[in-house]
Amino acid sequence: VKKYYQLQRLHPAGLHADWADKLHDQLYVSEHTQSTHEHYLQVVLTTIEPQGGHKGSAYDAYEYTAHSHSFLSDQVPSVRVTFDLSPIQILVREISKPWYHFLTTTCAIIGGVFTVAGLLDALLYNSIKMVRKVNLGKQT
Description:
The chain crosses the membrane at residues 99-124. The structure is a single chain. The protein folds into 2 domains: 3-93, no CATH class; 97-140. It has 1 helix and 5 strands, in the order βββββα. By secondary structure, it is α+β, with helices and mostly antiparallel strands.
């Protein structure tokens, strides 16, 4: 006998329903009558501070990773949902790069191209010089 269940609403009170999007409307099938389905959610609070916004414009978002698996048990079939709330908070600040960052990056790229071109030129020059010596019989 196959049994099915579907997660409709899985989020703590006060959080928006979109928070449950990873497990929302997922269909889980029990192949055996004593199947247990376990869902493990690791939750991290992320605070985002937009660029140029004042202190009150920051907003919080809960990000999570969901792991699900099924196994046979000797007990009544069940669904277990475990939340692991992380003590660590992620803080994302949007900042702009200063104008001179573009200038220094451009100079670094030009300098790198110049250096590689110089190395290739020296390698090619010395290779041609050695081939000419070998052709003239002056190579020792």
